[in-house]
Design a protein that fits this description.
Blueprint lengths: L5 E6 L2 H9 L8 E4 L7 E4 L1 H4 L9 H7 L4 E3 L3 H18 L3 E5 L2 E5 L9 H16 L3 E6 L2 H11 L4 E3 L5 H5 L12 H9 L5 H6 L2 H8 L2 H9 L15 E12 L2 H21 L2 E12 L4 E11 L2 H15 L6 E9 L2 E2 L11 H17 L36
Parallel strand pairs: 2-4, 7-8
Antiparallel strand pairs: 1-6, 1-7, 2-3, 5-6, 9-12, 10-11, 10-12, 10-13
Helix pairs in contact: 4-5, 10-11, 12-13
Length: 405
């Protein structure tokens, strides 16, 4: 039986590359994309900023201090979405089965293709087509599984390609840092360092039981990945099982009226997204982060619904139960999960036809004129919430720094 051929494609510093495509004056200059305020976060950074210690996810304030000469751009989610769609369409036209892991990252199953056409040659031509038609740099790794291909892409970057032949996986991985293994975050890395494990070859030689003892249930998976073994399948355009919104306030607040209005606006926006995607949710979660960074969340199960008048009171009730400390709040969030397909069915106990007709009318207006075209008086101060694309169209969410309120 022939080995699998799994291709991993990753657009290099995607947001940065798009900005440079739009404005060529930014080429070869240090560039940061993300939130501009004091609470802003770096969503993407150019290679030029990395030698100063800058990385994505870091506070924009810290990044600016580390690299004061960097140009800072807020970024535009709709522009990045447009380019993400463009790349997706190119891949779709060339590859029979692929997974869109994020807005800038793809896996494709090329197994069996080598009987007709060399997979590495095909992958190289696909990469050149993407560069030619989009103007964006992209790298790829090719191996017999997703994990090794993803690590190979990281080694190929920037704007290059790498193949790991069957049987050479362990040798390829051996000299690399254990940090390169997907799933090894900072906490796991620190645990491994304390064991004296810095490189993958050490993991390869460790007894599996020892790693399971130190890392628990993830130990086996990390050990297998270190050996170059991975059986995770390609998941074509998987649907999202939860949707959420969060807001970081520019200034920590204790204003309960404002907090409740924000919760209400978020719950309404998420409910509208459900209805728009013909989805229903069965769990509501509310999260708060106090000014001392202590973070708490509460969730409750509900009958499947997409109705504001059920979801909003539940979210407000959770907030009421959660907000016990009366300390300044830095961030609040609402998440709807346990999502399934299905239209909102009339519930004779707490709905009326009048209520359902009202939703249909409001949604029609929002669909035509935008989500922010209809707002409750109580949520008028929360204008920054809403206006997102359909979260159930098979596209991963755009990950940008928190928008500010």
């Amino acid at each position: 039986m022939n080995a699998n051929s799994i291709l991993h494609l990753d657009l290099d510093t995607f947001f940065v590359s798009v900005e440079r495509l739009i404005n060529t004056e930014l080429l070869n200059k240090p560039l940061l994309v993300g939130g501009l305020g004091d609470r802003g976060v770096v969503a993407a950074c150019s290679y030029e900023t990395r030698k100063f210690g800058v990385h994505s996810g870091m506070s924009m304030k810290v990044a600016r201090n580390l690299c004061p000469e960097a140009t800072v751009i807020k970024g535009n989610a709709s522009t990045y979405t447009k380019y993400s769609h463009l790349i997706t369409e190119i891949i779709k036209s060339e590859v029979p089965s692929f997974e869109k892991a994020s807005v800038d990252e793809f896996y494709a199953d090329l197994t069996g293709m080598d009987r007709f056409f060399g997979t590495y040659q095909f992958a190289g031509e696909l990469r050149q087509k993407i560069i030619r038609e989009s103007g964006l740099p992209i790298s790829f790794g090719l191996s017999q599984n997703k994990v090794v291909s993803k690590i190979a892409t990281g080694e190929a970057k920037p704007n290059n390609q790498k193949i790991i032949e069957v049987g050479t996986e362990k040798g390829f991985l051996a000299p690399l840092s254990v940090k390169k293994i997907p799933m090894v975050g900072n906490k796991t890395f620190q645990k491994l360092v304390h064991l004296g494990v810095h490189y993958i070859h050490t993991l390869q030689e460790m007894p599996l039981e020892m790693l399971e003892r130190v890392l628990g249930k993830n130990g086996k998976l990390i050990w297998l990945r270190a050996q170059g073994i991975d059986h995770s399948p390609i998941i074509p355009f998987h649907e999202r099982k939860s949707i959420s919104m969060e807001r970081t306030f520019n200034k920590d607040t204790i204003d309960v009226t404002r907090l409740k209005a924000t919760i209400q606006a978020m719950a309404e926006s998420l409910a509208y997204q459900l209805r728009n995607g013909n989805k229903l949710a069965s769990t509501v979660t509310v999260k708060i982060r106090y000014s001392d960074y202590q973070t708490y969340s509460k969730q409750t199960k509900i009958p499947y619904t997409s109705a504001d008048h059920i979801l909003v009171p539940k979210a407000l009730e959770l907030f009421q139960n959660l907000y016990q400390r009366r300390v300044l709040i830095r961030l609040i969030g609402v998440r709807l999960s346990g999502i399934v397909g299905g239209n909102y069915q009339i519930n004779l106990f707490d709905d009326s036809e009048k209520m359902l007709n009202l939703y249909q009318s409001l949604d029609k207006i929002k669909n035509r004129f935008g989500e922010k075209s209809v707002l409750r008086a109580s949520t008028l101060g929360t204008r920054t919430i809403g206006g997102v694309q359909n979260p159930f169209n098979g596209e991963p969410p755009i990950v940008l720094a928190h928008r500010k309120q």
